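=== Structure Prediction Worksheet ===
Name of assembly: unnamed complex
Input type: mixed (protein and possibly other molecules)
Chain count: two
Listed entries:
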Amino acid sequence: MATDEILQLLVGNARLTSGEIAERTGRPEGEVKKAITKLEKDRVIRRYKTVVDWEKMGEEHVFGFIEVRVSPEREVGFDAVAERIMGFPEVHSLYLMSGTYDLLVVVEGKTMREVAYFVAERLAPLDHVISTATHFVLKRYKVDGDVMEERAESKRLPVTP
Amino acid sequence: MAETRSRIASRVGALPPSGIRRFFDLVEKMPEAVSLGIGEPDFVTPWRIRETAIYSLERGHTHYTPNQGTRELREKLASYLARKFGAAYDPDAELLITVGASEAIDVALRTILEPGDGVLVPQPCFVSYVPCVVLAGGCARPVSTVAEEGFRVQVEGLAQADDGNARALLMGYPNNPTGATLTRADVEGVVGYAAERDLLVVSDEIYAELTYDGSHVSVASVPGGKERTILIGGFSKAWAMTGWRLGFAAGPAEIIEAMTKLHSYTVMCPPTVAQEAAVEALEGCEGEVDEMRREYNQRRRVVVNRLNAMGLTCFEPRGAFYAFPSIASTGMGSEEFAERLLREEKVAVVPGAAFGDCGEGFVRCSYATSMSVLEEALGRIRAFVERVGE
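=== Predicted Assembly ===
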C-alpha cells in the first residue's frame, strides 16, 4: 500500500525527493529511501523520464501508426520479427495485437516523408512482413494520461466559507 | 408624514454579515494573492458525473422532479448511507434531496424549532449555523471546543452551555474550520447526552468521505442516534460538486415529511440535472473519490508539518480539508494576523474568529489547493512569521 503511494507520486513527478515523499505519505524518510532503492533494484522502477513538449521547442515531430501483418516463424512466433523491428531507433513503440493485423509499430520522425521512407525502405522489405498500412497522427489530444492542450482553470471565488 | 420604517425586516437587519465577507472584499481587490481561504475542492467534478449530466440534458430531462427528489437517487442514497454511514433509511419516507446541505440545515431548523428554543452549537463552526438558528426563531447556545481536545465536542461542554431550554444540537464533524473528527466514544457520549436531555441532533456530515485517520462515525450509526438525528450531507465536497447545489437530509419519517412540506414551498425540488448526475456519483465514482482523498491527505500532512515547523502550532486535523493552526506565537489576534499576512505577503487565510469566539487565536488554512500553490503559500507564511517574530 505504501509502496503504491510512493510509485504513484513518482509517476506524477519523478523529481520528488525522498524527503518530500516522506512528508506527503507520513513515513520516515529512511523508510521511503529504502523502498525506492528496492524498487529500482528490482527494476519495478525502470527509469525516470521527462515529458517534453517538443513543439514548444519549435521542433516538428511526426508520428506514424503502422499496422503490420506478419507471417509468424516456426518456434519463435512473432518475437523474432518484433526483435528486428524494435532495434530501429525510429521505432517509438511496438505492440503485438489481436485483430486484423499483428504488430502495431509507432514510428517517430521529423517529417512525414521520413516516416514513409522508413516504412518503405526498412519495415516493408523485412522477411515475414506481409503488408503494412501507415496512419499518420494529425493531432495528439491525450498522451500517456496527459491532456496535451492546457486549458484555463475554472475560476473559484478567492474566499468561501 | 408617516414615520418611515426600514424596508429590511429587523431580524435580517440585525444579522451580522459573515465574518468572511469583509475578508472576501479585501482579497478580491488583490488578484495576485495566493488563497488558502477557499472552502471548496480545487478538483473539477469527475468527468463521468459531468458526462452523465450532459446526457441527461440531451435527453431533455429538464422538468421538475418529485419534491423529495427522484426515486432513483433516493434509492441509491439509501444504499450508500447503509454502506458508508451504517444507517438504514427508507428512501420513500426518510430521505429528502435538497439544494445543497445548506438548504437542508435551514429547513431542518425551521421545521423543528419553536420561537425561543435553544440550540447548542459547538464552535468553531461553519458560518451559517448560527444565522440559520436565529432565522428559524431559535437561540444559539455556543459550545466552546478547544485545540487541546482536538476541537472535539465533549459532554461537559454541552452541559455547560445548556440552560435547560435547549431543543436541539447542531454540529458538523468532520469540522469546518478545524478539521476535527469525532471518535466513536465522542459520538456515543453526545448521543447519550442528547437522549438524556431529549434533544434532536442536526448532524452536518458533509465532509464524512474526507476522513483520513480511521473511518467516519456517523451520529446515526450509534445506538439511540438515528431516531433523534437529522443527518445532513451532500455532494459538494467528496465529489467536488459545489456548483451543482445538491445535498440531502435523512431522518425520522415524521420530520422528513414536515421538512418536505417546507422544502416544497421554498424550492419545489432540487435541480433535475444535478440529481441525475448524483446517481452516477454514488454509483460509479469510488475510484475518483479515493484519488481525491489520497491527494488531500498528502497535502494535509505537508501543511500540518510545515505549520508546526514554523511555530504555528497545529493539532492534527483528521478530516475535511482544513488546518486550523494557533497563531498565539505571533502575539497577534486572528483578524490582525490574516490582514497583515494578506497585505504583506499576499496570502489569504481566514481569521478563526469568523467561526465563533473560541476560534479567536487561530486561522483557517484550506488545503483544497494544488501542492504547488500550497508550497508557495507556506513559504510566504513562514517568511511572515519569521519577520514578525524578530
